[in-house]
Every structure is written in structure tokens, then in C-alpha cells.
Amino acid sequence: MRLPDLQSLKLFVAVCEHRSIARAAEQEAIVGSAVSKRLAQLEDTVGTPLLVRRRHGVVPTPAGETLLEHAREMLASVGRIERDMAAFGTGIRGHVRMLVTASVMAESLADDVAAFLQDSAHRDIRVSMEERVSPEVVRGIREGSASVGICWDAAELSGLHTRGYRHDHLAIVAHPAHPVAQAARVRFADVLEHEFVSMPALSAVQQLLTRAAAVAGRTLTHRVQVSNFDAALRVVRANLAISVIPQEVAEPFAASTGVRVVPLADDWALRRFAICHRDEASLSPAARLLIQHLAERGQHATSESAIF
């Protein structure tokens, strides 16, 4: 059996609902004879009568009742397909996977993504975020395991499209009793005599500090190695060592615990982050919307910091 076409099914449903060919034709803005022809072709397609003509209209046969049920389901499915595809076309539905560094995750990204998802136009967009070190963020984007990445802009980003996001400023975090805690600002080379809480070797912060120490002709003295900023801050609070942490991450912790945050005076302590992705054609409409939103939030934050 050949499958009936959707237009014929739509007319058939309209006739059954109105119990009248004339009223169905009026609803669909076509002549009654065209509806009758379509119905005859539909009965020929399915091989059985579908309607019984009566004095005051038409009613479906038992076969017609069965087809009516299926036709309504099919038309509803087509309607959902049209809505879903239109949603993708306008960028309001989809799943965006992101790879981001620990600094970005610990600072402003969660709030920025939450603001994006709270927009009613984005209610059908899902965003998932996975923490990686910068080289793994870049590799994941190049390999296509995620569509959007955010990492330190000093990472090897060649071949990827980038947009500016936010920036942060690295600082020494120390227990109030530590000698460094009383300074207003310090240079990194001047605190290398002290013991440090270290992050994983491949993390952007740790790589930066290792290079800076080497330039100063020194090495870092690691007393404790941890995997995240929260753990590093707790070690500092116990006065076991000092740590280098983004000021934006450390200050909320310092406000509640009393540890001291001393900004680094080195030029490299100001870090900028970049949104990276492959070519535009590979991005879904949802990913494009998210990137635009994050770039605008970053630009706004940069403008505010310049003012103040």
C-alpha cells in the first residue's frame, strides 16, 4: 500500500471533525470538489471506504475511525518536527558542550551561563561544562569533543576562531600571620623564598609560575600540591604555605576567613581569557547565541573595570 500524502490526511481529518465536506473546504480555503477528489484518491490509496455519506453530512467508517486516529498522530508529529526545526533555525534549542579552565569555572562563567539560560528565549537550550587544563581545552575543541572552549589566551590557539571573554589578576594569598600578608603589592620574584601550595603541573597558573621562577633564576618550593583552588585556600588558611590564585577567586574566601590577598605587581599577572571554537559553520545556532552572550558579558565587565 502506498502511504497517503499529508495534505490528503489533513483534509480527511478536517472533514471528520466538521462532519461536512463543505465546511472542511471552507476552513482549508479550497473548493468542495477538490476535497471530494482528494478523499476519493485517499480511499483508493488505502483500498477501503473511509466515509459514509449521509443526508446531513459524512461520518467515518470503522476503517475511517482507525485512519483518523493515525492521521491525527502523524499530523501532530509533523507539527512537532516543524516547531523543533524552526527552533533550531532560530537558535533557541540545542545542547552546547563547553570545555573550560579551572580559573574560568571558579570565577564568572557559572553566573554568565546562568544569566543566558534564564532568558526565556533560551529555555530549550542545554549547556554542559567540563573543567580541563588549557592545552586539553584547545585539543578538545580541535578534535570536536566540544563546540566551545574558554581558556587563557596565551594558550596555543592557532587554527581556532577566538573572541575575548574576561580577565583576572593573579595574587598571593597568605595567612594573616605570614610575612607576605602585610604587603600592599609584591613582585613574584620577591616571594620565591617561601613555600607554596601548588596546582597540577599542566594547569595554566602553575605553568606560568614555573616559567616566571625560571626567568628569575629560582625554583618554586612546593610544600603541598592540590587539585583545585578551594583546597589551596584551605591550606593557606591553615598557614602551611602561600599560594598564587586569581584575585577574583580569593577575595570572597578572604572576606569570610581573614586570609590576606596581595596582588602581584608583575605584568604577566593580568591574564585574559579567550572563547575559542572551530569554524563558524560547525557551530549550532545555540552555540552562536551562547558565544555572543559570553563575549558581550566579558566586554561589559572589561568596560566597567576600566571605568573604576
Short overview:
The protein has 308 residues and is α/β, with parallel strands linked by helices. The protein is 47% helix and 22% strand. Strands 3, 4, 5, 6, 9, 10 and 11 form a 7-stranded mixed beta sheet that branches. A two-stranded antiparallel sheet has the order 1-2.
Number of domains: 3
Report the total helices: 11
Strand content: 15-25%
CATH architecture of the largest domain: 3-Layer(aba) Sandwich
Fourth-tier CATH superfamily name of the largest domain:
Periplasmic binding protein-like II
Q: Whole-number radius of gyration?
A: 32 Å
Query: In terms of structural class, how would the helical and strand content be classed?
Result: alpha/beta
- How many β strands by DSSP? 11
Give the CA-based shape: rod-shaped
Helicity range: 40-55%
For this structure, what is the CATH class of the largest domain?
Alpha Beta
Name the poorly predicted regions: none
Biggest pleated sheet? 7 strands, mixed
CATH topology title of the largest domain: D-Maltodextrin-Binding Protein, domain 2
Overall pLDDT, averaged? 89
